[in-house]
Design brief:
Its EC number is 2.7.7.4. The strands form 3 sheets. Strands 6, 7, 8, 9, 10 and 11 form a 6-stranded parallel beta sheet that branches. Strands 1-3-4-5-2 form a 5-stranded mixed beta sheet. The model has no long low-confidence stretch (mean pLDDT about 95). It has 12 helices and 14 strands. A hairpin with a 3-residue loop joins strand 12 and strand 13. Helix 4 runs antiparallel to helix 5 and helix 8 packs antiparallel against helix 12. It is α/β, with parallel strands linked by helices. The chain folds into 2 domains: about 130 residues, Sulfate adenylyltransferase (Roll); about 210 residues, Rossmann fold, CATH 3.40.50.620. The chain is globular and about 65 Å long.
Length: about 375
């Protein structure tokens, strides 16, 4: 079994005594995204982190893309609240205690500097930059304990690392696929091609871990419900169930391109995957990143145990099917999210999506994120 990032799976789940003590602490309300960070820290998804970052780790991640101990880490995990150093707080979301925080340090940060380092731009057209500019100017760092889930809507599809690692023991290798979209035939091609490549190279048994991001997304992205429903239908009709596993990861999309790709790889290593699919413009948005920037950055973080599987651009050909452009002599069509949305909204046939998947999504009243997105 592949080891967690840093060599140890963090587990910071409050016991009964801590839960009782939490009721006596000063309560501080946090938003859903920070509540999910508490969950991801406490359950080991963010191993080796054991809390929100203090300034030393924060600065190191911004400028070096590593924690202060030298381990790769590319996205600051921070809490923008002005709390009291040395105090403990009950972190609440919508009135429910979701975590306990022991505040070690409170420090200021420059939001524009943060945006430049993490997103490579200060342009507020970038949803991650826009979100950053809404943050407070003071951060609180310190260890946390996970108490309760902030969002239980999709708990039937959520499995923490200590569970997935046991499930994955039945395979020699596990290929992880990150997605924030409902699947089209291009995604299916990449997933199955990756499995075949690992099987051919290693000769071992290979499982597929489809791991959608469930959380806040930008306007126009698929809703969480649509993503899960679409993959359930696809797996039921076109995948071998004995080597396919669907499990969600609850977090917000940051759209940080190459930096986020590294974080995504770390998280999948913590879940127990041995290989991670990285396609064109991974975790990108608009034209803020080059198509293969994520590939190049992942090559620089060779302390990760998980092996990235780099896929370049592929297209749809009426004669060849899904194919790499370098192998197809015909005029192929690019996969277009805009075209997929048009097909769904207007009820027209879409050659990019399996009929069963299209029908499942079309049954939903509104499969796309609206004004609540960012």
């Amino acid at each position: 079994m592949i080891e967690p990032h840093g060599g140890r799976l963090v587990k910071r789940v409050a016991d009964e005594r801590l839960r009782e003590e939490a009721g006596e602490l000063e309560k501080v309300e946090i938003d859903r995204e920070r509540a999910l960070d508490v969950e991801n820290i406490g359950l080991g998804i963010y191993s080796p982190l054991d809390g929100f970052m203090c300034s030393e780790d924060f600065e190191s991640v911004l400028w070096e893309r590593r924690l202060s101990n030298g381990l790769s880490w590319t996205i600051p995990i921070v809490l923008d609240l002005n709390l009291q150093e040395g105090e403990s707080y009950a972190l609440t979301h919508r009135g429910t205690i979701v975590g306990i925080m022991e505040v070690e340090e409170v420090y200021r940060f420059d939001r524009r500097e943060y945006a430049r380092c993490v997103f490579g731009t200060e342009d507020t057209e970038h949803p991650g930059v826009r979100r950053t500019m809404e943050m407070g100017e003071v951060l609180a760092g310190g260890r946390v304990w996970f108490v309760e889930f902030a969002d239980k809507r999709f708990d039937d599809h959520f499995f923490p690392p200590e569970v997935t690692r046991e499930i994955f023991r039945k395979w020699d290798y596990v290929v992880a696929f990150q997605t924030r979209n409902a699947p089209h035939v291009g995604h299916e091609y990449v997933q199955k091609s990756a499995m075949m490549a690992v099987e051919a190279y290693t000769g071992g048994s290979v499982g597929l871990f489809i791991n959608p991001v469930i959380g806040r997304k930008k306007k126009g992205d698929f809703r969480d419900e649509a993503i899960i429903k679409a993959y359930q239908v696809l797996i039921e009709n076109y995948y071998r169930r004995e080597n396919t596993f669907l499990g969600i990861w609850k977090t917000e999309m940051r759209y940080a391109g190459p930096r986020e790709a590294v974080l995504h790889a770390i998280v999948r290593q913590n879940f127990g995957a041995t290989h991670f699919i990285v396609g064109r413009d991974h975790a990108g948005v608009g034209n803020f990143y080059g198509p293969y920037d994520a590939h190049e950055m992942l090559k620089e973080h060779d302390d990760l145990k998980i092996k990235p599987l780099f896929f370049k651009e592929f297209h749809f050909c009426e004669r060849c099917g899904v194919i790499s452009k370098s192998l197809c002599p015909h005029d192929a069509r690019e996969f277009s999210g805009t075209y997929v949305r048009k097909c769904l909204l207007e009820g027209i046939e879409c050659v990019f999506i399996r009929d069963e998947v299209l029908e499942a999504i079309a049954e939903m009243e509104n499969p796309f994120v609206g004004e609540e997105g960012f």
